[in-house]
Each structure stands twice: as C-alpha cells, then as structure tokens.
Amino acid sequence: MSRKDEIRTKALKELQEHAVLMLNGHFDFGNGYHGRVYLNPHQLFKHPSTIWRFAQDLLDVLPASLLDATEVVAGPVTGGALLAHTMAGLLDSRRELSRERTLFAPFQVDVECGHSLSRFYRQQVPGRKVLLVDDVRNTGQTLERCAAQVTEAGGTVIATAQIYDRLESMVDLGVPNVPLAEYKAPENYPAAECPMCQAHQPITSF
Ligand SMILES: [Zn+2]
C-alpha cells in the first residue's frame, strides 16, 4: 500500500472515531427516511485540532505539483471556508519563507447565486491559481458554483479537494478532484419499508 493510500485508509477510520461518519447504524433522518449511514461534518470543527489534522492529511495526499502551484485556497462557508483557512496557513508552514504567502478566500452564502465572494476577496483572485476545497462533496454543485465565481473574478481553479467524498457527484469541473476519504452510503429507505425496523434494530441516537 502506498503512503497516500495509508493516509486515506487511516482518515476513513478516524472520521468514524470522531463521529463525523457513522456506519452500520439505524438512523431516522426525520424526513420519512431511514438509513444505515449518517454524516455529521460539524464534528470536524468542534475541536479545531481535529480539522488541523485532517487538513494536514489532505495536503499530504494532494500532488506536490498542485500544492506548489496553489496561490489561493478558497472554500464555501462554513466547513469549506474553515478548511480553506487552515490549509492556506499550513501550506505556508511547508514552504520557503521567501515565497509569497498563500491567500485564503471564503465564499459566503448568496440568496441569488448560492455562493459568492465578497468584493474584498474577489480582488485577491484575478490572475491567481485557486485550490477549491470543501469539507464534504455531495452532488458537486456547490464546488461548481464556487468555481464559476472564481472564473468570473478572473482566477483559475486548478483542482478541487475535500475531506470526504460521498461519491455522488453529478458534475465534472474539468480539473482534478482529490478526496482524503471516500465512501458511498447504501440507499435510504422509506420508514415503512425499512429492513432495520423490520429486524427490530433500535434507532441509533446522534
Ligand atoms: Zn428503520
């Protein structure tokens, strides 16, 4: 197993230890559906040291050439922005002091277009290479909207990365996507047809 594979395997285990990812449960999602897997990204940020460690691991699995090219790390609020801020700082700690310092840019929630950069952060992006990050990749549409904002502001997205990929992305941004951990959850069931209910498995609290 390569070093990067080892980091990925360890990360998937640690996501479970930190209760970010709960497998083999019986969860009532409160929307009429039950399922075996529950994802709680808030657990990543409850203790800042947790996200620092996962951010280090994500940097370790990203190709060195990509990290070397990165000038801005950007991510959508809240989880993506916290991760981007941490990664931008950690990147500088790995670089020569003479290099220009890495910039950070958060995408705020925007009622019209989903996510946007404020005027201040838009001004940092033109002509720069941007690494787009998020805590979790769901359908990929959030990253797609953020990438469009970077392009519109005159920056270039060179890659996307996330702590956890649900493997349900419906979009291809035409740049590499690097997840730290990935896992595809089995399908959820309407409560009336739930096999765990039929097996009298107690509901897992979360
Ligand atoms: Zn059930």
How would you describe this structure to a colleague?
By secondary structure, this protein is α/β, with parallel strands linked by helices. It has helices spanning 3-17, 42-46, 48-61, 64-69, 79-93, 119-122, 141-152, 195-198; strands spanning 21-22, 27-28, 33-35, 38-39, 72-76, 103-110, 114-117, 129-137, 156-165, 177-182, 189-190. The longest helix is centred in the N-terminal third of the chain and has 15 residues, at 3-17. The protein starts with a helix and ends in an 8-residue tail after the last helix. The model has no long low-confidence stretch (mean pLDDT 96).
**Portion in strands:** 25-35%
Return the structural class.
alpha/beta
Helix proportion range = 25-40%
Distance between the termini: 34 Å
3D shape:
globular
Give the overall pLDDT as a whole number. 96
Q: What ions, cofactors and ligands are bound?
A: zinc ion
- According to DSSP, the number of beta strands is 11
Largest sheet: 6 strands, mixed
Provide the low-confidence segments as ranges.
Answer: none
Order of helices and strands: HEEEEHHHEHEEHEHEEEH
Instruction: Calculate Rg over CA atoms.
Output: 18 Å
Number of helices: 8
Taking strands numbered 1, 2, ... along the chain, how are they ordered across the largest sheet?
Answer: 7-6-5-8-9-10
